[in-house]
Amino acid sequence: MRAKVFALCCHAIENARLLLTSNDVMNVGIGNAHDHVGRYFMDHTHIFASRFIPGPEFPAAYDRMYADLFHLNANVGFTDDFIRKEKLLQYYCRFNPVYMDPRTREAMGYVRDGFMAPGDFAYLRDVATMLGEVGGVTRFSLSRTNLRHIQPDYYELEHRLEQAPNPDSRVVISDRRDALGSLIADLDWRILDEDVRSFKIGQERIASEFAALGYGRVELEEITRDLVESRIAGHYHQIGTTRMSDVPEDGVVDRNQRVHGVGNLYIGGSSVFPTAGYSGPTMMIVGFTIRLAEHIEKQLAA
Ligand SMILES: Cc1cc2nc3c(=O)[nH]c(=O)nc-3n(C[C@H](O)[C@H](O)[C@H](O)COP(=O)(O)OP(=O)(O)OC[C@H]3O[C@@H](n4cnc5c(N)ncnc54)[C@H](O)[C@@H]3O)c2cc1C
């Protein structure tokens, strides 16, 4: 393939894999002279921990029935001042309503979504599970209508966090090949103590503020590294494997998303983000990509 300019926009894991496996000319991979390609992999992380038992005042602040009816979710975050003072990563807490045992909720989902035929053993077992907690199922169903004002028994706290950049969290190349003979990427996704600390302080502050406001009480689970590692999940928001930097020693692309040391190769997508933030990456990806297209257009016209 021959072109004046190339733009690599295959998303964070594949962008890194293509650079690392393109090693005919630069044997450590394109743009990898300083060993940054594939490193600093981040996602938007979340864990479930602790439960909030709402008091009678809570629906005035957050009425779950109203939120359900309009498919809304409320999140509680912190002010910029608090985040800076406590040296926190960006954090917010989501309140997930619980009307019944999680196993009953799961069974209800399978039955509702028609995952199996009505005569199947699994179907009958799930219906039996629902009948075993018919009160919770009824209250959950009513909470989705505007017939009755039904609040959940409690809320599960879902803690959502911006992940801190970590060079050891990375995309690496395995020795396995796909059907076309290309080497497959592996992901070594890691968290730092800083991530655990932000989850912990975030939860503590939510619990103390809600208690002070008289909204209810929190049954706290202690947030430890083990707890975080056993529960952490991402949001398919893959970020950071070809990070942007002013100088080649610190990253992979320059401020115009051109690969350091390569005249005509640009990278688009969240792989160029040096930090992850906590909101969905796609609007920023689109913004950066429009800017990149304009830059390339100017370069070609010059
Ligand atoms: C279930 C789910 C929910 C999400 N929800 C949200 C959300 O609510 N908000 C939000 O902001 N983001 C969300 N995201 C993330 C969002 O989808 C991504 O941030 C966004 O799609 C990334 O855009 P991109 O163009 O960089 O990569 P992609 O959309 O992944 O596009 C990459 C393209 O490159 C192609 N490609 C890959 N490898 C090669 C190759 N070797 N050769 C040629 N072509 C190749 C792929 O086929 C694809 O078309 C979600 C993702 C998932 C999976």
Provide a concise account of the structure shown.
This protein has helices spanning 12-21, 58-61, 64-69, 80-86, 102-112, 121-132, 134-143, 193-212, 225-231, 282-301; strands at residues 6-8, 44-54, 75-77, 91-98, 154-162, 170-177, 183-188, 216-219, 265-267.
Notes on the structure:
Keywords: FAD, Flavoprotein, Oxidoreductase. This is GMC oxidoreductase. With 302 residues, this protein is of the alpha+beta class. The protein has ten helices and nine strands. It has helices at residues 12-21, 58-61, 64-69, 80-86, 102-112, 121-132, 134-143, 193-212, 225-231, 282-301; strands at residues 6-8, 44-54, 75-77, 91-98, 154-162, 170-177, 183-188, 216-219, 265-267. The strands form three sheets. Strands 3-4-5-2-8 form a five-stranded antiparallel sheet, with helices on one face. It has a two-stranded parallel ribbon with strand order 1-9. A two-stranded antiparallel ribbon has the order 6-7. A hairpin with a 5-residue loop joins strand 6 (170-177) and strand 7 (183-188). Helix 5 packs across helix 6 (121-132). The protein starts with 5 loop residues before the first strand and ends with a helix. Bound molecules: flavin-adenine dinucleotide (FAD). Flavin-adenine dinucleotide binds next to helix 10.
Q: Top keywords for this entry?
A:
FAD/NAD(P)-binding domain, binds flavin-adenine dinucleotide, five-stranded antiparallel beta sheet, 302 residues
